[in-house]
Amino acid sequence: MICIPITARSTEDTVSGMVLASKYADIVELRIDYIPELQNALTCIEKILQSKTKPVIITNRPEREGGKFNGSEQDRLHLLQKAVDLGADYVDIEYDSIEQIIRQNSSKIIISHHNFKETPHNLSKIYDDICQHKPDIVKIVTYANDITDNIRIFELLKSARVPTISFCMGELGNISRILTGKFGGLLTFASLEKGKESAPGQLTINELSKTYHFKEINNETKLYGIIGNPVSHSMSPAIHNASFIEKGLNNVYVPLKITDIGAFMKECRKIDFHGFSVTIPHKESVLPFLDDIDLTAKRIGAINTIVNQNGKLTGYNTDCMAAVMGLESSLKETNKILNNKKISIIGAGGAARAIAFGLKEKGCDITIFNRTIERAEKLSHDVKCRFGSFKEIHKLDSDILINTTSIGMFPDVDQTPVSKNILKEGMIVFDAIYNPIETRLLREAKGKGCHTINGLSMFINQAAEQFRLWTNIDPPVELMTNVVKEML
Ligand code: NAP
Fold first, then answer.
1. Is 139 known to be catalytic?
2. What are the distances in angstroms from CA 416 to CA 16, 351, 432, 472?
3. Is there a contact between 156 and 180 (Cβ–Cβ < 8 Å)?
4. pLDDT tens column, 182-226
5. Per-residue pLDDT reduced to its tens digit, 363-401
6. Is the pTM of this model over 0.85?
7. CB of residue 406 inside a 6 A radius of ligand 1
């Protein structure tokens, strides 16, 4: 279930907020602590309970538990008691106040505990203490300082004895808000829109419904995610979730912002992720934590995909074939083939590594140019090709020029890695950047009569191959492309 909290400051705005929220939510939460003045708050409770069309939770959170109520404790409890007396569907009472409330009528009591600093290690003890007070619903909300804090919340949910609401707050707690239904959590909270969150890390109703299909998630749902840092702007959740829905798969894909890759790779095995995408900065650092690495990925020395088959985690690199596929299909349009082509690759990072190995296998004659010459030398040694410094780029003499640096990527769209003077008519110019779709390099290359290839095909191809590895199903490539184009 989805609950939308109303955090308006007047009765009028609260009622209109409730009407709007009731269109999307299963339950609405009236955050009475946002309304100044005791009398206004009382009127608001009465008005809401008279006009509600969906079940309502009445909450009056004190400042000590992250709320806005700053009056006396007596007044705070008086409002909560009033909500119980009026028969509100649910009333949220903090664990340390439960003995002050007389329980009567049909109101269900949520006994809650909030920790805005951390996810403590004594979650089971807190749960047991709350249960001693015979709650109708237990609510334990903590703060995630590390992604693995969510995993402890999932374990708590799995062992719950009464209906339970539990998740982590903060950016790192997002996944527990999205996945709570898989582990038996009663509901999640969502804001009506950005800026109307009642707690840190709350997603909007739109994100929960449109990107993550929250209501479709159940205990059978298979989990996938993207391991990286940062990941909040990744387009992969939108692409893969849309593809899972398109193919009728009960799967969900979430962003996983990972700082300590070793700790995550150990803990993630507890909750049965079926696969991961891997992005910057973990494409190489994740290798020691895998059970097996595909041969091509081993030679490249980096992966971007993990498949979990019966508990065995295997790493793959789909960037490599994605780049080669993109180049080959573009060359087909000009009736050319990759074999024996002279190729200059600018950059010597992860993308360059994957592309260089893929093209070497196709028999291409490669030169790597990079700002940090030592990195170019190392890559050229591994791939067995030539290398040069950035200053030598003007000497390049190639059929194909490939940019794998981030120069020209959003927001620095006015930059370009090479002077347009080195671009020659008939040259093929491929930019791995896909945001923007047409970089300055590609624009200038077009102007010089070059054949240009943007990074979108590589991006889509790598995601499509991930999808195939995880599901053994043909990926919906057109849909994937449309999702990315829409987002860009
Ligand atoms: P990376 O491993 O961090 O490598 C970055 C590369 O860019 C290095 O060679 C670095 O040179 C160079 N660089 C960065 N800023 C520079 C500057 N100001 N001047 C000169 N060189 C600079 O990153 P990556 O994973 O290879 O990604 C690189 C680019 O490829 C990004 O734009 C990414 O979006 C794109 N990419 C696209 C796809 C796709 O599917 N289309 C896939 C992967 C990556 P130094 O070694 O000197 O630092």
1. yes
2. 51, 17, 13, 39
3. no
4. 999 999 999 998 888 888 899 999 999 999 999 999 999 999 999
5. 999 999 999 999 999 999 999 999 998 888 888 889 999
6. yes
7. yes
Buried b (16+ CB within 10 A) or exposed e, 76-113: bbbbbbbbbebebbbbbbbbebbeebeeeeebbbbbbb
Nearest CA to ligand 1 atom 39: 459
**Quick check: CB of 465 below 6 Å from ligand 1?**
no
The residue from 196, 240, 282, 283 that is catalytic is 283
Distance CA 411, CA 413 (A): 5
Residues near 282 by Cβ (< 8 Å), separated by ≥ 6?
227, 228, 229, 258, 261
Confidence band for 233, pLDDT divided at 50, 70 and 90: confident
Q: Is 235 annotated as a binding residue?
A: yes
Written as six digits, the tokens of 393 are 């780029």
Atom of ligand 1 nearest to the CA of 283: 25
Any catalytic annotation for residue 283? yes
State the closest ligand 1 atom to the C-alpha of 279, by its place in the atom list counted from 1: 25
Q: Does residue 370 line the site of ligand 1, with CB under 6 A?
A: yes
CA distance 334 to 21: 55
Q: Check pocket membership of 373 for ligand 1, CB cut-off 6 A.
A: no
Q: How far is the CA of 280 from the centre of ligand 1 (A)?
A: 10
Ligand 1 within 6 A of 351 CB? yes
Residue 476, ligand 1, Cβ within 6 A? no
Q: Catalogue all structural domains in the chain, each as residue range(s) with its CATH number.
A: 2-219 (3.20.20.70), 226-316+463-487 (3.40.50.10860), 320-454 (3.40.50.720)
Determine whether the annotation assigns residue 352 to a binding site: no
Query: CB count, 10 Å around CB of 366?
Result: 25
Angstrom distance (rounded) from CA 257 to CA 178: 14
Candidate of 282, 318, 373, 405 to mutate for ligand 1, largest count of ligand atoms within 8 Å of Cβ: 405
Q: Which of 347, 409, 405 is nearest to 379 (CA)?
A: 347
